[in-house]
Amino acid sequence: MLIVLEGIDGCGKTTVIEGVRKHLADLGFDALATSEFGHQHPWAKRLRQELMDNVRDPIEQYRTVLKARDEHMNGVLIPAAGLQKIVLMDRYIMSTMAYQGQSEFTPVRQIMDDHANVFNFPVADLTIVLSCTVSTAIKRQQASGKAMDAIDSAGREFFSRASEIYISSANAIARQRPNKIRIVDAEQPLDDVLHEVINAVSGLIMTRDVA
Ligand SMILES: Nc1ncnc2c1ncn2[C@@H]1O[C@H](COP(=O)(O)OP(=O)(O)O)[C@@H](O)[C@H]1O
Ligand SMILES: Cc1cn([C@H]2C[C@H](O)[C@@H](COP(=O)(O)OP(=O)(O)O)O2)c(=O)[nH]c1=O
After folding, report:
1. How confident is the model at residue 34 (pLDDT cuts 50, 70, 90)?
2. Domain count, the chain
3. Which atom of ligand 2 lies nearest, measured to the CA of 98?
4. Which residues bind ATP (predicted)?
5. Percent of the chain scoring above 70 in pLDDT
6. CA of 12 to the centre of ligand 1 (A)
7. Which residue has the CA at smallest separation from atom 20 of ligand 2?
8. What's the rounded Cα separation, in Å, for the pair 134 and 68?
9. Residue 129 in domain
């Protein structure tokens, strides 16, 4: 089962995923937390660097994301699906739409069409978008001492537009397949955000056969 957390840098994805993973562990589920550029994967360091090197070449950036997506699908998602694991994934296709989709060379519509009709990546069972303002995301990153390379180099405008893409695409999915998407107000205190996310995840798990 594939559950994806989305949202701009600093909205709380990594923290929430860890909270959900612990909650599920207490219930006896061995969920896997992962991401396509995650430090635990042997290919990720090179591809993260490639993503940064190509910051001014959107077509190459998109190619790099697709390479990471392919490695991750074959190395992580397919084996986990074979074991009927719950996978908690930090970012997926909606991040590509929100970030790479801002370029006129790889517009959101093209990214959506490619993923629907050309590539064969697994479809998430549930995508949860953590929604907060860019100011909140910046404050949280500053408070955590986390490097803000992305926001520093791309600028606030980029992240405001990314937020808009997240919300408009989530609303579009909600109109067609409401049980595949949740928007959670990530301005709330962490416990409240976690509570909402855990409720959404639990609702899904009850309907499936998972390990
Ligand atoms: N709802 C929240 N309220 C306050 N602080 C939060 C909340 N969610 C996350 N944080 C804090 O914000 C910082 C960034 O969170 P993180 O999970 O690393 O974000 P992301 O993975 O989306 O970049 C961390 O220090 C985290 O503890
Ligand atoms: C999945 C994905 C990530 N990215 C970017 C967002 C992040 O800047 C970077 C790595 O993601 P992530 O691992 O979430 O960032 P962090 O370094 O904060 O842990 O990759 C894209 O630009 N497009 C994508 O499709």
Report:
1. very high
2. 1
3. 23
4. 7-14
5. 98
6. 3
7. 37
8. 26
9. yes
Question: Which residues form the domain of 141?
Answer: 2-205
Q: Tell me how far apart the alpha carbons of residues 170 and 46 are, in angstroms, rounded to a whole number.
A: 31
Query: Which pLDDT tens digit goes with each residue over 166-182?
Result: 999 999 999 999 999 99
Residue 211 lies in a domain: no
User: Is the Cβ–Cβ distance between 144 and 151 less than 8 Å?
Assistant: no
Compute the distance between CA of residue 77 and CA of residue 83 in angstroms, rounded to an integer: 10
Judged by its nearest atom, the ligand closest to the C-alpha of residue 132 is 1
Question: Is the pLDDT score of 151 beyond 90?
Answer: no
| The pair of three-digit structure tokens given for residue 109, joined into one six-digit string | 């519509």
Which ligand number lies closest to the CA of residue 4? 2
User: At 88, which CATH number?
Assistant: 3.40.50.300
Strand partners, 4: 89, 127
Sheet holding 32-34, edge to edge: 32-34, 87-90, 2-6, 126-131, 181-185
ipTM of model: 0.96
Is 90 flagged in the annotation as binding? no
Q: Alpha carbon 107 to chain centroid distance? A: 18
For ligand 2, the distance from its centroid to the CA atom of residue 35, given in whole angstroms, is 9
Residue 92 C-alpha to ligand 2 middle, in angstroms?
9
The pocket around ligand 2, CB under 6 angstroms, is made up of 9, 35-37, 51, 65, 90-91, 95-96, 99-100, 150
* DSSP β-ladder status, 32-34 and 2-6: unpaired
Task: Find the 37 Cα to ligand 2 centroid distance in Å.
Answer: 6
